[in-house]
Design goal:
- The chain is globular and about 55 Å long.
- 35% of the residues lie in helices and 23% in strands.
- The protein has six helices and eleven strands.
- It has a six-stranded mixed beta sheet, sandwiched between helices. Strands 3-2-1-4-5 form a five-stranded mixed beta sheet, sandwiched between helices.
- The protein folds into two domains: 89 residues, Nucleotidyltransferase, domain 5 (2-Layer Sandwich), CATH 3.30.420; 148 residues, ATPase, nucleotide binding domain (Nucleotidyltransferase, domain 5).
- With 265 residues, the protein is of the alpha/beta class.
- A hairpin with a 3-residue loop joins strand 1 and strand 2.
C-alpha cells in the first residue's frame, strides 16, 4: 500500500492507494495541521486512522509527502521512520517531476502547485490546463500541453477571507460559507456570504479568461478544480472537471517518476 500525505496550512489530507492499482484511492482521512504536532502524535493518529479504515499499518510500503508547512516536515519524517519504518519521499526541489518550470526561480513554486500540475497532466495528458485549487490560499495555475508549468496566481482562500473580515472588523460575524442565490444581500450575514461567493466566481472567470488569452489562444484549456471548496461552485459551470484528490494523484506520479514504486510494482 502507498500512503500519500498532502500537508496544507489547515489540514493534512491523507490517502491510501493499493499496490496493484496506484490510480485508485482506497481510503482517505484528514488531520488538523493548524497546531504543531509531535512525531509521536502524528504516528499514533496515522496508525489509528488506518486501522479504523480497515488498513493494516504494516501494509504501508511507500510514503510520499507534499508539504507547504515546513515546520511539520521534520516531525512527519520522524513519524514515518519510527511508526512505519519508512523513509518518506518529500516533494522538494531536485526531484523528478516531468515538468518544465517557467518561473524565474523554479524553487519558489510550492509543492502543492507542482503536485496539482502533475496530477492534472496524469489525468488529462496532451491538454492545455488551468488548475484552480481552493485551499487556505486559492491558486490558479496554467500548464501547457507540452508539460510546461507557466505560472499563475495566489490569492487568499474563501475561508481565510471570511476569517479576516471577522478578525479585523468590529461588528462583522463569522458566517457559513455557502452558495449565494443573489448578488444583493439583505442582511449582514447575507451580504458577507454573497460577497465571498460572487467575488470568487468573478475572480475565477476573469483569471481563466485572461490566462487563456495570454497563453492558450491556439487551443482552449481544460479547467480543473480541486480543494475543499471546489464543489461550492458546481452550479456556476466554472470548471470542466472537479478532482478533489488531484494533489495526491500528482504525488503518486512523483513517487513513480522517482522510482519509489519499483519495489512494490
Amino acid at each position: 500500500m502507498i500512503l500519500a500525505l498532502d500537508v496544507g496550512n489547515s489540514q493534512i489530507y491523507c490517502g491510501v492507494f493499493a499496490e496493484a492499482d496506484s490510480s485508485r484511492q482506497k481510503v482517505q482521512f484528514r488531520y488538523s495541521s493548524v497546531s504543531r504536532s509531535s512525531s509521536d502524535e502524528m504516528g499514533v493518529f496515522l496508525r489509528s486512522a488506518l486501522r479504523e479504515n480497515g488498513i493494516a499499518p504494516e501494509s504501508i510500503k511507500v510514503i510520499g509527502i507534499s508539504s507547504v508547512v515546513p515546520e511539520h516536515n521534520y516531525s512527519l519524517r520522524a513519524c514515518c521512520q519510527k511508526y512505519f519504518g519508512i523513509e518518506p519521499m518529500l516533494m522538494r526541489p531536485g526531484i523528478k517531476t516531468g515538468l518544465q518550470i517557467a518561473y524565474k526561480d523554479p524553487k519558489e513554486v510550492g509543492s502543492d502547485r507542482i503536485a496539482d500540475a502533475m496530477g492534472a497532466i496524469k489525468m488529462f495528458p496532451g491538454k492545455n490546463l488551468i488548475v484552480i485549487d481552493f485551499g487556505t490560499a486559492t491558486t490558479v495555475c496554467a500548464v501547457s500541453k507540452d508539460r510546461v508549468f507557466l505560472g499563475g496566481n495566489i490569492m487568499p482562500g474563501i475561508r481565510l477571507a471570511m476569517e479576516a473580515l471577522e478578525a479585523k472588523t468590529a461588528k462583522l460575524p463569522s458566517v457559513e460559507i455557502k452558495p449565494a442565490a443573489s448578488a444583493i444581500g439583505k442582511t449582514t450575514i447575507d451580504s458577507i456570504q454573497s460577497g465571498l461567493y460572487w467575488s470568487n466566481v468573478g475572480m475565477v472567470r476573469e483569471l481563466v479568461q485572461r490566462m487563456t488569452t495570454e497563453a492558450f489562444q491556439d487551443e482552449a484549456p481544460l479547467t480543473i478544480a480541486t480543494g475543499g471548496f471546489a464543489h461550492l461552485f458546481d452550479r456556476e459551470s466554472l470548471f470542466d472537471e472537479v478532482v478533489p484528490d488531484l494533489i495526491l494523484i500528482g504525488l503518486l506520479e512523483a513517487l513513480r517518476l522517482n522510482g519509489q514504486l519499483d519495489a512494490i510494482s
